[in-house]
Structure to design on (369 residues):
């Protein structure tokens, strides 16, 4: 197999959707009692008939997570380096068509921001940008990594998809992991939500984790933006992608995230909602399907819900986040990518984790165990 595209094209969205909805209570029970769960089991666990089994799924998910990761939650801070973007993504506050003030942090501003983030205790940082290849390119990332590396044990990025050689370069500079979410695996809807710019190329994005895997990156983060399409079908394709990558690039580690669409400046999306209860079902289903994968929950989710998720399968959380370039100290009023829902400080989040009997961990797992 050349890339995930070859696997993906063997599936039809409608067939997958129908087969999830055809799952029975007996399929869910078989999935719950299986010692190793397949993609068919995963379908049963995310299906509507699994709703009465959520409590049982939560208990299993809790046990499996604790067995693999201990009673710990890893914390990280996102650092938005730039809100420049040449793409139109209809759900994003940084989208090209929005007439907002654009900003890319200078080297001095990056140092000013990381100084504040460091003071909160973080040792793991996620660098985020839009897609503006002329100003925010590989050389810019290399420079940022050089500046940040002396101060943080782990550096991750969530930026535009790059070429394999570029990922290799970044890895040599000290990059630890790359997050690239497909947003939706529905090809036609993807075109609808991404009408302009490089991101409109569905297949280039779909094959990005293959390029990251070939580059030998330590970790790859996958995900879909919940609210763009039917969450069950979309997250099945994400599980299929994860399963493929794990088999092919078996030395790489994986994380998964389930961001739900949040309000943002100039954005009007009334999509396919997923309830809190369904999101719990989804998180537990992923844990039951894959005992190794890290599960990350961002500050898009509200405080009480995040507190509740600590014991259910989550391994990683952002905290005290700012989603605007310069938001920690340089320019606190620049436009944010989306509204934060949980606006507690990192210290407050860490205290709640500790009150739940868990240890907040300020850097990546691999450096801990
Ligand atoms: S989602 Fe990313 S690529 Fe799309 S408009 Fe926003 S910043 Fe740009």
């Amino acid at each position: 197999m050349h890339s995930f595209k070859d696997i993906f094209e063997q599936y039809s969205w409608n067939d997958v959707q129908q087969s999830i909805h055809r799952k029975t209570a007996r399929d869910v029970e078989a999935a719950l009692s299986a010692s190793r769960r397949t993609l068919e089991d995963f379908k049963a666990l995310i299906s509507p008939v699994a709703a009465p089994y959520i409590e049982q799924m939560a208990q299993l998910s809790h046990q499996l997570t604790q067995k693999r990761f201990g009673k710990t939650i890893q914390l990280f801070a996102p650092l938005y380096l730039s809100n420049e973007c040449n793409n139109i993504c209809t759900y994003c506050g940084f989208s090209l068509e929005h007439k907002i003030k654009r900003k890319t942090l200078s080297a001095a501003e990056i140092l000013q921001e990381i100084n504040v983030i460091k003071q909160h205790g973080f040792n793991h940082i996620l660098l985020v940008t839009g897609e503006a290849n002329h100003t925010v390119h590989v050389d810019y990332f290399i420079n940022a990594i050089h500046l940040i590396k002396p101060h943080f044990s782990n550096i991750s990025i969530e930026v535009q998809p790059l070429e394999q050689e570029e990922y290799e370069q970044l890895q040599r500079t000290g990059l630890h992991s790359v997050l690239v979410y497909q947003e939706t695996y529905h090809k036609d809807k993807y075109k609808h939500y991404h009408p302009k710019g490089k991101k409109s190329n569905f297949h280039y994005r779909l094959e990005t984790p293959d390029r990251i895997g070939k580059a030998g990156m330590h970790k790859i983060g996958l995900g879909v933006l919940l609210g763009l399409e039917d969450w069950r079908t979309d997250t099945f394709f994400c599980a299929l992608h994860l399963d493929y990558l794990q088999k092919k690039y078996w030395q790489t580690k994986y994380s998964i995230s389930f961001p739900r669409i949040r309000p943002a400046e100039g954005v009007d999306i009334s999509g396919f909602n997923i309830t809190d209860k369904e999101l719990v079902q989804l998180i537990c289903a992923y844990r039951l399907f894959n005992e190794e994968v890290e599960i990350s929950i961002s500050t898009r989710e509200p405080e009480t819900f995040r507190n509740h998720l600590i014991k259910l399968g989550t391994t990683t959380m952002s905290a005290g986040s700012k989603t605007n370039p310069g938001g920690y100290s340089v320019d606190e009023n620049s436009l944010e990518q989306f509204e934060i829902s949980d606006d507690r400080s990192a210290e407050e989040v860490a205290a709640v984790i500790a009150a739940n009997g868990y240890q907040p961990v300020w850097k990546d797992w691999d450096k801990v165990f």
